[in-house]
Amino acid sequence: MAPSTALPRGISLEPGPVHGSLTARPRQQRAHEAVVTSHSWTRPGLGGLIYMGVALTLGGYFAFAAIQGDYGVLRAMQIANEISELKAERDGLAMDLAGLKNLTHRLSDDYLDLDLLDEQVRNVLGYVRADEIVIR
Question: From 32's CA, which of 21, 58, 75, 112 has a CA 20 to 30 Å away?
């Protein structure tokens, strides 16, 4: 129950050590205790420093691996560059293959291009007609 009498000036009621009890304390003492406890500085423990050191080391390692590792960003850019170069080489080889297929078809038994045959005989075998002059 609340006390029916008024407390003297400078005294306040605070919770006591037993549940539901009240203790009267001077207000100046309470203010002094609050100042002391609010300005006390404690040094971080060694466990906290070790924890932070391990966390920073692992964070740095994973950041390095994400950028320069086997599956990192730089490797992905390098692979993308290699893919584009190999695709360009593949396209060039496909064009060369198409050209060789065309020449093979033009010299086949089914389709014979006499102009191509004459050109190949002159280039490969070095034949020249009697009425021609070769300038090299």
Answer: 21
